[in-house]
Amino acid sequence: MYPTNPIEALRRQLDTLGESAKKGFVRLNTPCQVDSLMGWLSVQRVLPRIYWRARDEGAVEYAVLGVVNVFGSLASLQADLAALGDIGGEQPDFFGGMAFDPGTPGWAHFPACHFVLPRIELKRCQGEATLSLNLRFDDRCPSTEITQAHACLDALVAERPLSPPLPKAYQREDSPSQKEWTGWVDQVTHQEHLRHTPKVVLSRETCLTTSETPNPWALLSRWQAGAAGCFNFGIQLTPDEAFIGCPPERLYKREGKHLITEALAGTTHRARDVQQDAKLAAELLGDRKNTLENQCVYQQILSQLEPLSHHVHLGDSHIVKLRSVQHIRRLIKAELHRNVTDQQLLSALPPTPAVGGVPRESALAFIRQHERHQRGWYAGVFGRVSHASSDLAVTIRCAHIDSETIRLYAGAGIVAGSQPDEEWRELDSKIADIMSLLGMG
Ligand SMILES: C=C(O[C@@H]1C=C(C(=O)O)C=C[C@H]1O)C(=O)O
Ligand SMILES: [Mg+2]
């Protein structure tokens, strides 16, 4: 269908780029054919490698790699969005994420905040794939930029099929242990503690160790296939390390001044029998402890949105059914005041009480004091930001993978009425999908 090699087509466009085009941001595009974006990403040598797909049906799939710019803070990202917006013309997409708690050391190769304007984008929308080369000329020497762009094109490798990840024998270690967990839940649900801190989301790190871990892109591709209604993300900043996940939770989506966010909290498992499953859902919606978990989230989001927006609307409670769990969700819509930026939203909203707690600082203090594992980018933020629209997920239901270890993370909102054993089981339900893909289900 496309007689020209897409890389060749981009090279030619680059060579014939007129002087007048060399201002601000430039995106060169060519149609291409691709089977699996993750299969393509998996064989590339250029870093970083990023995959992103929002949870909505028909959402655009992005596989991006290399960098035109890197941003280590929300302020620098916002300054660049504004600078390119002022120049006008086509605007880029920025991809990246943030750690759960910038106030703690986090993961070794994952900065507290890291967004990139990628060099190469492979996008698929309604079955049509496009390969793009990004350039910019406002902040650098044009000839160097063109040389670097050529070098990145030269480094691209043809897609190869992903081989399915083979189940292996893993050694499992949980931090905290169930015994420690019980002690923490008892502390948080103590009358005295609840009085000043009504909700703390406690988490667990499950370390799976083996001689050779699976290809993260093969794993994500399998995970995605069974995770309808979830976001899908993957990022490799260093060659032997990846962070992947299929989170059901949206931090926010902004289209111009329209904002959509949500309170997703309160959990039960799934039943095989349809009637039994509906009964579990009805019980969840009526359950006091679970309703309280959700209420803590929407109340804080509403109060954070108040100074930034008008016409804030809180939707009804409803059930979101995932493969192994069901959750209570309430959608929130708002109209942002003029000039409210992604920087402001990303400074105000995360970590929401869906993953942190209420009040934020005292919940974070409990987490910092007790959890020995580093949350890093677990329970942080991942997504796409641009001038016109942004969409970001909360990074739960995720795995950090290096050459020997897979680290799985799960948390549970602890409020009045939480029982340690039930909450521990909730953690297991939240990692059930990925555990079964690894042959540990
Ligand atoms: C913290 C996680 O999930 C959060 C906690 C939930 C709960 O306790 O009911 C439900 C959804 C998320 O808000 C996680 O999956 O790791
Ligand atoms: Mg819960």
Describe the structure.
This protein folds into 2 domains: 6-154, no CATH class; 171-437, Anthranilate synthase, CATH 3.60.120.10. The protein has helices spanning 6-15, 37-43, 74-87, 142-154, 178-188, 191-196, 216-225, 274-286, 288-305, 342-348, 360-370, 420-430, 432-437, and strands spanning 25-32, 49-53, 61-65, 69-71, 93-98, 113-117, 120-125, 128-136, 171-175, 199-209, 232-238, 241-245, 250-255, 258-269, 309-314, 318-321, 325-336, 357-358, 381-386, 389-394, 398-401, 405-414. Helix 1 packs antiparallel against helix 4 (142-154). With 441 residues, it is α+β, with helices and mostly antiparallel strands. The model has no long low-confidence stretch (mean pLDDT 97). Strand 7 and strand 8 form a beta hairpin. The chain contains 13 helices and 22 strands. Magnesium ion binds next to strand 14 and strand 22. The site of magnesium ion has 6 residues, from strand 14 and strand 22.
